[in-house]
Amino acid sequence: MRRWSSLGVVEVYGIIEGVYFKHVDGGIFYAKGVIHPPGGVIGFPKYIPSPRGSRVAPSGISYVKIEELRSQLRILKERYPSYLREDKCLGCLVPVVPTSDIDEIYDPVVVVNEMKSRARRTVERVAVELVSLLAEHIGWDKVGLSGSLLLGLYTPRSDIDVVVYGGHYKAYEVLKEARDKRILTGYSGDKLALLYRARSKETPIDPIAFKLHQQRKLLEGLISGFEYFIRLIDPSSEPPYCTFKTRKHGTVKVRGEVVDDSRSMMTPCVYEVFIDEVIIGPKEAYEVSKLYSLRGRFCELVQADEKFEARGSLEKVEYHDGSCEYRIYLGYEGDYLISLDLLKRR
Fold it and tell me: Please, which pLDDT band fits residue 7 given cuts at 50, 70 and 90?
């Protein structure tokens, strides 16, 4: 297994959210989540080598980008069926790539240091500007670039994917100030319409509701005309792998109130809630205390003291000390979360 550098996020936390890696067959995967089973990494294929691919790596190899989760799962079933396994600890089917099948690791923090010294193209310069905006307040060792910029597979109009591994609340304050100063702007017009078309394929929400929720998000928007997406990743937020067991109890649809939104901007994203009404699902859904997601689209959607409606998977998490909790996982196709109070104000 080859790494770009001995320094960076991988050296501190291992292969976690934001990190990409190359499979021995040349395919490029992204790591999902902040905990992984021993000897493997939970990962999904994002770029597949193909002579018909429109993305060309610095090595000259052409790749096809796999956009949607359903397409990534299809490729896993077709090409890597042995990686898919029912994980008793996580309570679902997950793709686990053996570390022995990983050829190269791409570190988000390391690539920033390399890009600062070259940054010849416009998208590179703007990406470094956005990273600098955060790093100057929380440290260069805590901010990196993910996605196509990390891999050298970007186009002149690629999105800028930023990952932050510490100093999260300070970083969020910096984003608020940058939005107030119009350094960063929210989605609008054609770009908002394109984003809605992409998101609504998996997450059902009407366009007006989508616009209202999107307008108050700070973690995604535009900088100098380029789209950006920021993940505030909290590696310490999860208990060690398999110190708990997760049991699925089907799909539920609920309404309730947000008690605490202080981790709603994080990855993993958590809302502490109280359930008022179970529209679909078993009575155990009334015991739910958290909404939980590993997907950035579910960040910043509802705020403390707001009423909400959500559709997701009911999970019972049992810990080794004998305690347990119910939560709703948001992330599968058809899942959604909306603020009922925000919609009333439209």
Answer: low
